[in-house]
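Help needed: design a sequence for this.
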């Protein structure tokens, strides 16, 4: 009798466990299989990426050619292209992409990679040539169409270094030069593209969230009805995981994407976002990434358009 009771109890427990397992639910959604994927078919993506004296070594071109198709983005604005032939070689290794390289400088060139299946290039040209004080590397303008809409992208690599202080008595002070560059970009956009969809990108070598007295971007921040830094939330709460330049302590966010008010509605859509792409996670470690590709992460903006 005691044996039958034990057997009955064991049978009931087994049935309970079987049915309980059948109704269990996962508490967290599955992770995205492709950690590099950023773009979608219904959005325009523009990425800025400082490639640190491209190519860093003999593995750089091959490695990046395997990474970029997984981004699934439309335009990548690059900085620090030292070997333009290697950059064209990179583009030829990615069938749907083509390269554009500025010849305004002989080194540290600005360049674009664009998806020729989604982007129609109308014109590309450097501006502020010869004005080396604000622009040691002349900005590179890309006039393009996407899904029948026209856009202007301005690729920048502003003066590096500095001491977080604007020395008004020194016209060659790094912060003074970056501030002047921003003021000139504002004037250029106002004069040449007053009603156009403008995206200003690049390695701008300074922080956005600083007091007005030391903020080189104040000319843009003073006009919230005209401009918006899509990466401003990152600047307000920088962490190792979300900034574009995490190599040093504290980690810095030096790469930015600024849009004009013609793009405010697109960026306000649910499918729009701005964030870094953590390529080092795909490559296994930061040391591997930084030794082959760059000390900057790519920063991208995704803009949704209903048409």
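Sure. Designed sequence:
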């Amino acid at each position: 009798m005691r044996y039958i009771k034990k057997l009955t109890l064991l049978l009931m427990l087994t049935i309970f466990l079987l049915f309980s397992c059948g109704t269990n639910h996962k508490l967290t959604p599955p992770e995205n299989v492709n950690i590099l994927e950023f773009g979608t078919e219904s959005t325009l993506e523009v990425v800025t990426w400082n490639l640190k004296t491209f190519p860093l070594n003999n593995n750089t071109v091959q490695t990046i050619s395997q990474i970029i198709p997984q981004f699934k983005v439309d335009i990548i604005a690059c900085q620090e292209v030292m070997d333009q032939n290697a950059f064209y070689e990179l583009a030829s290794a990615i069938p749907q992409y083509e390269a554009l390289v500025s010849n305004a400088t002989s080194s540290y060139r600005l360049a674009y990679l664009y998806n020729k299946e989604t982007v129609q290039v109308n014109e590309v040209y450097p501006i502020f040539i010869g004005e080396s004080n604000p622009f040691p590397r002349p900005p590179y303008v890309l006039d393009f169409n996407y899904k029948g809409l026209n856009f202007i992208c301005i690729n920048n690599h502003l003066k590096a270094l500095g001491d977080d202080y604007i020395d008004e008595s020194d016209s060659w002070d790094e912060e003074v030069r970056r501030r002047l560059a921003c003021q000139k970009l504002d004037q250029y956009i106002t004069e040449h593209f007053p009603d156009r969809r403008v995206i200003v990108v690049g390695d701008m070598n300074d922080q956005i969230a600083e007091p007005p007295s030391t903020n080189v971007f104040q000319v843009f921040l003073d006009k919230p009805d005209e401009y918006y830094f899509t990466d401003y939330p990152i600047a307000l709460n920088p962490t190792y995981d979300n900034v574009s330049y995490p190599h040093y302590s504290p980690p810095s966010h030096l790469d930015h994407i600024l849009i004009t008010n013609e793009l405010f509605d697109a960026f306000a859509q649910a499918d729009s976002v701005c964030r870094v792409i953590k390529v080092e996670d795909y490559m296994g470690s930061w040391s591997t990434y930084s030794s082959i590709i760059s000390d900057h992460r790519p920063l991208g903006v995704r803009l949704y358009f209903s048409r």
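Residues 62 and 305 are 33 Å apart (CA to CA).
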